[in-house]
User: Fold this.
Amino acid sequence: MTRIAYLGPSGTYTHQATIQQFGVEDNEMIPMVSIQKCFSALLKDESISYAVLPAENSTNGQVVFTYDLLRDYMLETPNAARGCMLPGFAIVAEQYVAVEHCLASPLPMTADELKNANIERIYSHPQVWGQVGKYLEELARVTGKALSRCDAGSTSQAVDRCLRDYREDKTVTLAIASALACRISGAHIVQSHISDVADNTTRFLIIQRRKQEPLQILPGRQPTPSGERIHLVAFTTDRQGAGSLTDVLLVLKRYGIDMRSITSRPFRRCSTSSKWQYVFFVEYSDELDVPWDSFHAEVGAHCREWCHWGTFYRNNRYYS
Assistant:
């Protein structure tokens, strides 16, 4: 049996990504209370083989908690040859989950009945508010009042709080969550597909411990991956000033490598007073006939620290 840690509780979009990647048979999916706990569980518990983490949303951008932890683990790893860091885990797959938010209630209720209901609060994860803003404006117009927005640790927790309010004192509140969360908890869906952007999607990374077991690029179950492979590296530049990032990116150009994305997160060394330093994350395609050892040596020559986080198949949902 394969044990997988994921950002819980059950019913979250991360749970859905875990199911898509591994299926449900012969697997134990272990919900964690934070992204940090997912990393820690994988590193400290040898019975856990993988962890599934949210990385970015097509509407709201990167999940900074995940990138900040990747940054921290890279910078805290003892220096290896040529400045290359080897943290205790690697990225071996990606998944994409369509974010199809639903309006949930503890009671069966139609959208028309909602107009006359005495409801004052609505729960969801803080990131969700920016994905359903137009819907909430229309809801306020129809009902004649704006609901008080209450943050929850996850969309699944939002549903749980909604159900608890009714269970404890018969107060009817609402939640915005996934259909999976509603189905698991027993909440009633008042309205489906309420996201402002119809094709809103979240990307997830699957990480595996580097030690104790050989790394394996996972094919993924739903959907099947494309034949394209992607590399993810992170690095700091070897100097400050004009052209330091360009020096690294020009290596990709010389080798004819297609860069697919670049993002950055700030960091600060205790040994320097500079506040404006960055770890850059770059994804690029696995081109044929590239002398990778030579390429990585040239990249490393322009970096103070760098880390090859992993190689994985591009998921077909990337193209849809």
